[in-house]
Specification:
The chain has about 375 residues and is an all-alpha fold. About 85% of the residues lie in helices and about 0% in strands. It is globular. The two termini are about 20 Å apart.
């Protein structure tokens, strides 16, 4: 298990680097104003995918292929609802509603059946295809956000649909659809709130930016995406962490988490102040100029968000699904209030992300280590075979 998880970790890191390469290719082929639109699309795509279907992946990771067909029914129903809302956004988002359902079914079955190497390899294939398709689009003369949106759609389809077809014949329906739906429901609230906190802010920045601020919004989105590189690793890896966290006492999780995040936070802020602005220009181009203070604030928000992710996974491992929802809801509410109260276009986004992530993390920790939750955790682990 440790070796397989290590391999997945390497694949996730490589996948995260490829995602940033993909975003950089798009940025270098469009103007900052157009990149503002693409950044909004990218955030909506993550909301459509991770936000809706991560709970399906988590349940399949717990139950395995015996729940595949029942989970597919639940995922298809969710995709139809999403499609009804996304039809007003863009055709590419509509296509992603259904493709994301298949994508996360595949991921969940591979993790749940112990095929972690396949899971890691598929992550790399998917992100590598995005880079290839984006390079091809740029070579063909694409210069608008709408044109590059389809490179993401094509990569997800090519990488996952053939694998889904192969897994489908191995899947079973031993778990009733209603049981899968009942387990997914509270996780869905938390997952949607998680993506609203992480990806809703870039959409809001683009939406509230005045016409003469669109380029500034595009520069911010480029910096925001680059600063979130650790989250490109942590978010895909969070389901694979469940077997490791399960059975670990809550206070041990909190202690190890605090130590790791203290080191990550110090390193992140130091990098943001020293080479952050130069790195943004290097990756996205000379038009993308951002200050060290802006990058440092985002880096602190990323550290708090990492803490929130690990804490909520500890709650999932303890079968405290409703507490996951409350943690993310607290984060979203604090971020929303902060965004409304601060007037500056960029500062409101940076502080909202930091404050919301920190509030959600502290709420999750409180729910995880309170005496009642500690008792439930130990009860769960002691009854395990």
């Amino acid at each position: 298990m440790v070796r397989a998880l290590s391999f997945v970790g390497v694949c996730v890191v490589l996948s995260g680097l490829l995602v940033n390469a993909y975003l950089a290719v798009v940025a270098r082929n469009v103007s900052p104003a157009e990149y503002s639109d693409f950044g909004a699309f990218w955030s909506i795509a993550l909301l459509v995918g991770f936000g809706a279907f991560l709970p399906v992946e988590q349940e399949l990771a717990r139950l395995g292929s015996r729940a595949l067909r029942s989970a597919a029914v639940v995922a298809l129903g969710m995709a139809v609802v999403e499609c009804a809302l996304a039809v007003f956004v863009s055709p590419a988002v509509v296509a992603l509603c259904f493709l994301s359902a298949g994508q996360f079914l595949v991921r969940g079955v591979l993790i749940g059946s112990g095929r972690l190497a396949w899971h890691g390899g598929l992550l790399v294939v998917d992100t590598a295809l995005r880079v290839v398709f984006a390079l091809l689009a740029g070579w063909l003369g694409a210069t608008t956000s709408a044109q590059f949106e389809w490179t993401l759609v094509a990569a997800v389809a090519v990488a996952h649909l053939p694998v889904l077809a192969g897994l489908w014949w191995q899947g079973e329906s031993e778990v009733p659809v209603r049981d899968v739906a009942r387990a997914v429901a509270p996780l869905l609230v938390g997952s949607v709130c998680a993506q609203l906190l992480l990806n809703g802010i870039p959409v809001l920045v683009t939406a509230v930016a005045a016409p003469d601020e669109r380029a500034r919004a595009g520069v911010f989105l480029a910096a925001f995406l680059l600063a979130r590189v650790p989250l490109f690793v942590a978010v895909p890896l969070q389901t694979a962490l469940l077997p490791v966290i399960t059975g670990t006492p809550a206070r041990a999780v909190v202690t190890r988490l605090a130590a790791a995040l203290a080191l990550i936070g110090a390193a992140g802020v130091a990098l943001a102040f020293t080479i952050g602005p130069w790195l943004v220009r290097l990756v996205f181009g000379p038009l993308y100029v951002v200050s060290s203070v802006d990058l440092a604030l985002v880096a602190l928000g990323v550290v708090a968000h990492l803490g929130l992710i690990v804490t909520t996974q500890a709650l999932v491992a303890s079968a405290l699904h409703s507490r996951v929802a409350w943690s993310w809801l607290a984060g979203v509410l604090v971020a929303a209030v902060t965004f409304v109260l601060i007037p500056d276009l960029l500062l409101r986004a940076e502080i909202a992300f930091l404050a919301g992530s920190l509030a959600g993390w502290l709420t999750g920790l409180r729910l995880l280590i309170s005496p009642r939750q500690e008792s439930e955790l130990w009860s769960t682990t002691s009854s395990s075979p």
